[in-house]
């Protein structure tokens, strides 16, 4: 056996082992506390309307305006998570369960399925991130990153609900990962940009705040512009827009059915959300408040122990290749986090 073959095999085995262990930890952390027969452990008021929409998508008779009686607070809600669940179950009905009587699910069943789907999407995004970044990060940094993302308390807690927050994080992880891949793309085949746009569009349908993640491709395009890669830049922008339209079209049924009504209802929905949180200050004050809250949350639950490691990583990166290779997309991620 050639030495290179043995080395490549051992590296692949180590890579697979690290990623697999992180995936198992992520699934285990999200399954704790979910027991059959106890809906209160995974129930949230917004899950009920998500379940009704998923059931309607499964039956292929979704009409959000009729279902919610033209109430903008309900019709303009982002139902992308429920749409994916309904389409998945419809596909199962037509393939695996073909020829059998279709069983209608209860609200409890849909809430459990939405929670399971949230876990599946997040774990899949985590595994993709770790697998692709392993060569750059190495085994120890990949394992540390995977453990932190797999065991993050807030993510694990929200995975117990059929809400759209965890799928949103999955979409943001994939968007960031695909943005890192744009430098390897050929102008004639912008498949990565197309996948990036589709992920952005689907994430927007899951939760509207995903629109802030457009800062990720903007950072990559800024680098392309600085390097005078005009053809690659134009092809990437066009592919991202095309993919984004396809993703939004798939996960925003109200926009697909009645665009004019959707835009009006979205304005009313946004105004209603602003009234709930009662934020009337200027944008820059809101940005400062978000950053201060993020720092306070970071200091809670022992996360302050990560500060020395983060400071060391920034210092090492700054004196090596940080500014040249990673500053734009890391800066975009931090800016997006501050806006969120």
Low-confidence stretches: none
Radius of gyration: 22 Å
Give the structural class: mainly alpha
Output the number of helix runs: 16
Largest sheet: none
How far do the termini sit from each other?
A: 53 Å
Order of H and E elements: HHHHHHHHHHHHHHHH
Can you lay out the helices and strands and say which pair or pack?
Blueprint: H1 3-31, H2 45-59, H3 64-67, H4 72-75, H5 80-94, H6 107-150, H7 153-158, H8 165-181, H9 191-206, H10 215-226, H11 230-251, H12 253-257, H13 259-277, H14 283-299, H15 307-318, H16 322-339
Helix pairs in contact: 1-6, 2-5, 2-6, 6-8, 8-9, 9-11, 10-16
Describe the structure.
By secondary structure, the protein is mostly helical. The protein is built from 16 helices and no strands. It has helices spanning 3-31, 45-59, 64-67, 72-75, 80-94, 107-150, 153-158, 165-181, 191-206, 215-226, 230-251, 253-257, 259-277, 283-299, 307-318, 322-339. Helix 6 crosses helix 8 (165-181).
């Amino acid at each position: 056996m050639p030495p290179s073959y043995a080395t490549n095999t051992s590296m692949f085995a180590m890579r697979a082992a690290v990623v697999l262990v992180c995936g198992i930890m992520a699934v285990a952390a999200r399954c704790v506390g979910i027991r059959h027969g106890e809906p209160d452990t995974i129930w949230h008021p917004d899950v009920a309307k998500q379940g009704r929409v998923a059931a309607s998508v499964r039956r292929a008779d979704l009409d959000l305006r009729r279902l919610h009686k033209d109430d903008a607070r309900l019709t303009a809600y982002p139902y992308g998570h429920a749409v994916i669940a309904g389409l998945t179950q419809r596909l199962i009905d037509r393939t695996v369960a073909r020829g059998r009587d279709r069983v209608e699910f209860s609200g409890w069943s849909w809430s459990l399925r939405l929670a399971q789907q949230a876990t599946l999407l997040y774990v899949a995004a985590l595994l993709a991130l770790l697998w692709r970044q392993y060569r750059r990060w190495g085994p120890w940094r990949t394992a540390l990153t995977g453990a932190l993302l797999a065991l993050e308390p807030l993510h694990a807690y929200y995975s117990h609900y059929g809400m759209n927050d965890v799928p949103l994080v999955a979409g943001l992880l994939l968007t960031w990962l695909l943005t890192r891949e744009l430098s390897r793309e050929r102008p004639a085949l912008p498949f990565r940009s197309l996948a990036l746009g589709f992920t952005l569009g689907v994430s927007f349908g899951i939760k509207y705040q995903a629109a802030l993640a457009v800062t990720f491709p903007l950072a990559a395009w800024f680098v392309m512009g600085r390097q005078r890669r005009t053809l690659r830049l134009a092809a990437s922008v066009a592919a991202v827009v095309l993919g984004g339209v396809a993703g939004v079209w798939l996960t925003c049924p109200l926009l697909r059915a009645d665009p004019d009504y959707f835009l009006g209802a979205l304005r009313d929905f946004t105004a209603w959300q602003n009234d709930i949180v009662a934020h009337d200050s200027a944008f820059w004050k809101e940005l400062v408040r978000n950053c201060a809250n993020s720092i306070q949350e970071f200091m809670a639950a022992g996360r302050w122990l990560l500060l020395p490691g983060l400071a060391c990583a920034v210092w090492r990166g700054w004196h090596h290749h940080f500014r040249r290779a990673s500053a734009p997309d890391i800066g975009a991620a931090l800016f997006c986090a501050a806006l969120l």
